[in-house]
Specification:
about 1000 residues; alpha+beta; seven-stranded mixed beta sheet; four-stranded antiparallel beta sheet; 30 helices; about 15% strand; globular
Length: about 1000
């Protein structure tokens, strides 16, 4: 290679960047994410850091231009003098040394580390708008571009063909590059147009006008809707109305109306607790409600619906989920005729929320709203219906609401919600006619108001819930799905709370105001990534976050907003809103699993082919000295292999791989599975021009180099706190650099090695290296296969120091109603992995899962490492040995398990060599036996096993126990048991 390496090809402070990326999840004030919902948006901190490291050359590289080295040295000296108060503790010591001895930066490696310190600190949200950081980053970006051959006065061009929520192009503008963003999705294009074009072009003036007209809309709409949202006679203001869909009980002779409610809690925050009591009225075939204050958990009964089945409070009969579904389906989801059961209010000059039962006045307002909506629908004229009537498809596991009758996008809303949204939409159009601005400024204002309306729709539909722990209304898209919600919360659009119109306006405003520091205008176009509009050899950095195989059905989800945007501002963007719904034809997602009827052709082969074309287009538009960056964070091996195959087939060589923690480990999808906590940033360059012309690699040479590369890389990751699945996938970059440098790799007999075959070897190499780290100072091969597999399995599920902070991501929720409604069985305990990942781990360790049914349970596409409690009967050879589950204390993630009284006969049998415990053939079995005896409080039996039986004299036994202690998650019973066992060691004289 005749070009200097970029910083990101040498090093990256991933632990510090990860901390800033995680923190960003809890920052909402001024964050661009408040502008509009977009799914799986990349954290700005990660994008900002990666962009700097990818655009700046490594000053320690012999080919690095002296111009950049000199400029970087001067700027870092200035930074050391001026910014000690803004720097992290990690940087302070270095900056102090540099300030005292500037000559330290004459050492290129010292200069490299200082630049990386700057990048880590610049990733901090608090420094993202600091003038000194911005000027320094932009100066270094400009200098690097010119030093690497760019025209003087020009900026490097960053191209992102899957722009999505706009994080990458926005940060490209922030650090001083030009940005060309494209996306096939019209909603994404519109969001990027606001961020990359309108904000830089109009600045704070845009925010001022949006605030002005947002307030005007509030005043007008509030007057028109006053009769439909009346205030209480005592002056209290309703802020939310709580509704329950209903069914008729199918119990013999009953027929009572059953309100479908997940929970009867209204508030349980701090010392304030409020809940409902259901009062059965069987003679009236209905129930009434009472509000209870200052109640405890024992005073509050369960809701009426569980896993989709509804239990009647009048007769106790449980109507099955199929009947619940059938009843709601004929009523189009049951939102229109749901039952209001509570009104949440605020009072002037009094803190807190107040709860009351609905009155005839409340119900009359709802009835009048329904009448008014029907009148407006009849009087409406135009190409599009007043209320969105576009078809809402069923997508199992994603769109479950249609299963219950929500067959159009408009059916997701109640009549009063629809009346409110259509009136606000009308005033948005009227505001556009009144502004009389030129040069497209009116269009920009109206577009931002339409985005606020989108936020309103997210908070004003029958999929919103009431969160008693808030207590507050929870918006629809808490995750990437449209679940069925039994009881829903209706916001008051002018109640000065969550779901309020001005709240939506403020969310848009803070995004506009915070991004107004960007002066360069980016370019955004609607384009297919497989047919990129840019010419050859023009991009300095091709940086993208492509769709993750089948992780997120972006186009289908965005239809929720598309149908409203088309009605509100479609006239301004005729090229974006040409079809009734978002065109899904060319969206590169594997969709056949979600919806085989509509997407039968979008299988893994189709995905690989289309993604390969897109990756090849990226190579085409990239300048010969440029760099490619691809972010990927899919949890399945299939998704990873599809993406990597597309890149290798397109002719990319991976030159680096950096995992940056961008997710919360407590989010729903991460629990008890190997879902990534990190997004892996793959650094790549076109193969052509990087190699010496050698096209065919020797399989023996590749296999010889692979373990050495993994051995070098894994400790580096561990030092940064990267372990488990994150480490496995982070090793793919260095591993693929070996494989992808060749056009093809052949075996001695001439057979071509496939990427899948090579990845099997990568998993094996990673597994073996991980075991040497797990069993430090011991020969891992000295443990039986069940111990090796268990250790590696638990390690794969771990997150390490680079993992979550323990805070829940805003985009994730607790157990959802959708999951309840699918009728799936009870959640199993244990430790789950995707089957293919488990298979690869076992294969790499020489273990055979099919021979260990007493340790691993395989069901479909998942594999479960059994919890120790479920192994009791196998370990003691007594099927009758029962396991009792006791309810965990509140707020505990895992339920604690204990044995029932152990049979005396079994207790007597616990001695080494006794035939009745002969099942304990391995070290792992004996450790698990000891853990269970400790858990059951059988000290004498444990002593006989360890001391009299001699098990405690085995060094492997204690080494394995110590390793398991480090591997079991802290909240699990296994961790508590093995630690208790280790604590007994000294007392037993072992």
């Amino acid at each position: 290679m005749t070009y200097p390496k970029r910083l990101i090809e040498v090093d990256l402070p991933i632990k510090r960047i990860s901390a800033h990326a995680r923190r960003e999840k809890s920052i909402r004030h001024g964050h661009i994410s408040t502008l509009h919902i977009w799914w799986a948006r990349r954290p700005l901190a990660a994008c900002r850091a990666v962009l700097c490291a990818a655009l700046w050359p490594d000053p320690a590289d012999q080919l690095c231009p002296e111009k950049f080295v000199t400029a970087a040295r001067e700027r870092m000296l200035t930074w050391a003098k001026l910014n000690a108060s803004l720097s992290s503790p990690e940087s302070l010591q270095r900056l102090f040394k540099i300030h005292k001895s500037p000559e330290l930066l004459d050492n290129p490696e010292e200069l490299r580390v200082t630049l990386l310190d700057f990048i880590a600190d610049f990733a901090n949200w608090d420094n993202s708008t600091n003038a000194v950081y911005l000027e320094t980053a932009r100066f270094l970006t400009q200098t690097a571009h010119e030093a690497l051959g760019g025209e003087p006065g020009t900026r490097p061009l960053v191209v992102d063909p899957f722009a999505g929520g706009g994080s990458i192009p926005l940060e490209a503008l922030r650090v001083g590059a030009d940005a060309f963003a494209s996306d096939l999705n019209p909603v994404a294009v519109l969001l990027n147009k606001v961020v990359l074009e309108y904000i830089p072009k109009y600045g704070k003036k845009l925010a001022e006008e949006v605030r002005k007209w947002g307030m005007w809309i509030k005043e007008q709409a509030e007057k028109e809707l006053a009769e439909f949202y009346p205030k209480d006679p005592d002056g209290a203001t309703p802020i939310a109305y709580l509704w329950a869909r209903t069914i008729n009980c199918e119990g013999p002779g009953c027929g009572a109306e059953v309100p479908l409610m997940r929970s009867l809690w209204l508030a349980k925050k701090g010392s304030r607790s409020v809940a409902l009591r259901i009062v059965p009225k069987p003679n009236n075939k209905r129930v009434d409600f009472e509000i209870m204050e200052n109640v405890g958990a024992r005073d509050v009964r369960d809701g009426t619906v569980k896993r989709g089945s509804a239990t009647c409070p009048c007769c106790g009969y449980t109507t099955p989920v199929t009947s619940v579904r059938a009843q709601l389906k004929v009523r189009k989801g049951g939102a229109a005729d749901a039952r209001m059961f509570c009104v949440v209010t605020t009072r002037p000059g009094v803190q807190g929320r107040f709860y009351r039962l609905p009155t005839d006045r409340d119900l009359e307002a709802v009835r009048k709203a329904a009448v008014e909506l029907e009148k407006r629908k009849r009087e409406h004229k135009g190409e599009l219906s007043l209320v969105p009537d576009e078809i809402l498809p069923v997508m199992s596991g994603v769109f479950n609401a249609p299963i219950y009758g929500h067959n159009t996008w408009g059916s997701l809303f109640s009549q009063r919600q629809l009346l409110t949204l259509t009136i606000i939409m009308n005033y948005i159009s009227e505001s556009g006619r009144k502004t009389n601005q030129i040069d497209g400024f009116s269009q920009a204002i109206e577009t931002c108001l339409a985005l606020a309306l989108d936020r309103q729709t997210d908070h004003s539909n029958s999929g919103c819930t009431w969160n008693p722990s808030g207590p507050k209304l929870q918006h629809l898209f808490t995750r990437q799905a449209l679940p069925m919600v039994w009881d829903y919360a209706e916001s008051q659009p002018f109640g000065d709370s969550v779901g309020d119109w001005m709240h939506a306006i403020e969310c848009v405003l803070i995004a506009l105001e915070n991004a107004s520091y960007i002066s360069n205008v980016g370019i955004i176009v609607q384009s297919n990534a497989t047919q990129h509009p840019m010419p050859d050899n023009i991009s300095n950095l091709w940086f993208t976050d492509p769709p993750y195989y089948n992780a997120v059905p972006y186009a289908d989800l965005s239809d929720f907003f598309y149908v409203w945007l088309k009605r509100s501002i479609g006239k301004y963007y005729p090229d974006l809103f040409t079809s009734s719904l978002v065109d899904k034809t060319n969206e590169i997602c594997e969709m056949s699993g979600w919806d085989p009827d509509r997407y039968f052709h979008k299988n893994s082969t189709w995905f690989e082919k289309q993604m390969s074309v897109a990756m090849n287009e990226g190579k085409r538009v990239l300048h010969k000295s440029g760099l490619g960056m691809v972010v990927f964070a899919h949890k399945s091996t299939t998704g990873w292999e599809a993406q990597l195959k597309a890149m290798v087939d397109a002719g990319w060589i991976m030159t680096g791989s950096w995992p940056i923690d961008t997710e919360m480990g407590t989010r729903l999808r991460a629990m008890d599975s190997a879902a990534l906590a990190s997004s892996v940033h793959l650094v790549c360059r076109p193969r052509k021009g990087m190699t010496s012309g050698e096209e065919v690699g020797d399989w023996r040479d590749v296999l010889s180099e692979l373990p050495k590369r993994i051995h070098t890389w894994m400790p580096r990751l561990a030092a940064e706190g990267v372990v488990g699945a994150d480490a496995i996938f982070a090793c793919l970059g260095p591993a693929l650099e070996i494989f992808s440098r060749y056009e093809r790799v052949e075996k001695a007999n001439g057979d071509v090695v496939t990427l899948r075959e090579y990845l099997e070897q990568v998993w094996a190499a990673v597994s073996r290296e991980a075991l040497t780290m797990i069993f430090t100072g011991a020969d891992a091969s000295g443990f039986e296969e069940d111990a090796r597999l268990t250790a590696m399995w638990l390690w794969t599920l771990s997150t390490g120091g680079n993992g979550s902070t323990g805070s829940r991501d805003e985009d994730e929720t607790d157990e959802s109603d959708e999951e309840e409604s699918t009728g799936k069985g009870k959640k199993l305990s244990g430790f789950s992995l995707e089957y293919d990942a488990a298979r690869k781990i076992a294969q790499g360790l020489g273990a055979h899962m099919d021979r260990m049914p007493f340790l691993v349970e395989i069901k479909g596409e998942s594999a479960r490492l059994l919890p120790v409690s479920e192994r009791a009967s196998y370990l003691f050879g007594k099927e009758q040995l029962a396991v009792q589950k006791k309810k965990a204390p509140q707020n505990k993630a895992v339920q604690l398990t204990f044995f029932d009284d152990m049979n005396e006969e079994i207790e007597k049998d616990i001695a080494l060599g006794d035939s009745k415990v002969s099942a304990a053939k391995t070290t792992l079995d004996r450790v698990h036996q000891a853990m269970l005896l400790f858990a059951h409080g059988r000290g004498e039996a444990l002593k006989r096993l360890l001391v009299e039986g001699g098990v405690g004299n085995d060094a492997h036994f204690w080494r394995l126990a110590q390793s398991l202690s480090a591997l079991y998650p802290h909240s699990t019973e296994e961790k508590r048991w093995v630690d208790g066992l280790l604590a007994r060691k000294k007392g037993l004289g072992l």
